[in-house]
Amino acid sequence: MCGLIGYIGNNAVAQTLLDGLKNLEYRGYDSAGIALNDNNEIDVFKAKGKLNNLFEVISNHQNQVQSSHVGIGHIRWATHGKATVENAHPHLSNDKKLVLVHNGIIENYQELRARLEKEGFVFHSQTDTETAVHLIDKEYKTCANLEQAVIKAVKQLEGAFAFCIMHKDEPDKIIAVRKNAPLIIGLGDNENFIASDIPAVLGKVQKIIHLNDGELAIVKQNSVEVKDLNGNLINKEIEEIGFNPEVISKAGYKHFMLKEINEQPAIIRKIVQEHLSDEAIVWGKLPCTLNLEKIQNISIIACGTSLHAAMFAQNLWEDWLQIPVHVEAASEYIYRKNITSENTLFIGISQSGETADTITAVKQAKEKGAQILILTNREDSSIVRYGDCVVPLQAGIEVSVAATKSYTAQLAALYWMGLYFAEQKTSISANQLAVLKQNLTELPAKMEEILSNSTAAQNLAQKLTSYSDLVYIGRGINLASALEGALKLKEISYINANAYAAGELKHGPIALLDENMPVIAILGPGVTFAKMISNCEEAKARNAKVIAVLPLHSDIKEGLFDTCLFTPQTDETTFPMLANIQLQLLAYYTADALGREVDQPRNLAKSVTVE
Ligand code: F6R
After folding, report:
1. What's the mean per-residue pLDDT of the chain?
2. What is the pLDDT at residue 79?
3. How far apart are CA 346 and CA 121, in angstroms?
4. How far apart are CA 214 and CA 228, in angstroms?
5. Spacing, Cα 26 to ligand 1 middle (Å)
6. What are phi and psi of 532, to 5 degrees?
7. pLDDT attached to residue 95
8. In sequence order, what are the beta bridge partners of 525?
């Protein structure tokens, strides 16, 4: 949540900051701002709304932004205070000499603010962030330099923060510091960067340093020093950036989301090659260090789309492993007395690896002695450090805020991991194992078949634009498909879409159904198919239009469905990965037909670093 950047070097600072922020827009887009330290004064430029508005503000001040060689920038996802110019970062001290940008939430800000106001500091925003500016400014007055003032101030802050801080009187540096919020330093030639995430520096530098919690960096044009909060120097590992700049280009697609939907077959092919090409299932490049003998139950905790992936795994794993698998939203798990123990395999799924709720849940489970497995798309993310074992998704950077390829990669990863555990436990027969492996192996070609002809999804999308409410239903392993389909549609089209366990429809939600409330039914093959047909009949009897997502050549009564989105034939366990592609296409084309900003839906951000 929120993205920040800092730059010190000889390139045009304002433009460099804006370029970096452009690649961080997935972190928020409620407002944006930059501050430049140009020796004489700190200039701050801010705009409400998307980054383009800030571009306009800056283009009207071209002569003012020329002379600086150091600056910081921010893109905001509002938490404390509305998306206004006053609340936009950077925030300035009262004497206008100290300026900072912040990602995170300062939990004790009210108490600090009251104290600072009593001491005469004047606040201009409703943000928690402004407290930090005045606190550092206060300490600066009694400290030898900015570095010491920052150290003294951040020790008084509770919550999460990543800061970039500049002072007019120390124009040769930016100070960066973090606790529970990501921050990297990009090392260039005669220039250095600070950023929330790698996309901000892709194509600009090859080498980076990851800051850890409680570390502070003094970033100058030709040097970077990292220290702990006692001022001791830390020798940091310098890492090569593993991504190629092309991952953040649309490659000719209208939106990143469509590009990412189309990348899915290649991702699954790579996963299959890495894990299923040998006779025994291969765990992957990072070793499986879990003590499998000890595991008596499994808990999988996640949020949003990742939670739907967990529900998919629950259906497969309880069958394959014959042990209880508990699935829960991280934000609920953390407030509940639970039975996590040292016999629990606790799995945290987070594509971004920065979701605060999931990180907190993982920390709690670790304290209870559970073995921790992390499934993430970002091997460099915060959640990774709590894992006894980490499984990288390898889906590549996902720019669209709505998750697509990371979800499919999660499903495929949970599929092969389940087979791996089952093989180790010999809880399924060799025959069944071989069939299941084959099913996953055949999936990429079947996904390509769906993607090569999206006409049915496009036509249906046109029709959906005239509805304001929809219902999705699914059963068993496809309840997750229904939930994910509804989530995708509502988050990018803003059509109200609710998903129900199909069997629950008759216990209340059926009252909603009439000709204005279409029902999208996910009819996977296998044990739930016949019951799903009955539920569709019930919906049809209430005049609802019924849309089916189902395998080609399924045995269905003529006239039951108003529209069908077909998948190639497949088995019960892999069908959700194909149905999901049809549902993603449907959501995408509906949102696009409605003229929505598909890649950056309102009110959302890609990594949610607040609880
Ligand atoms: C929806 C979406 C979100 C995320 C959720 C968890 O398209 O992307 O629901 O799945 O915010 O994010 P991660 O997986 O990064 O923990």
Report:
1. 94
2. 80
3. 46
4. 6
5. 12
6. -65, -40
7. 96
8. none
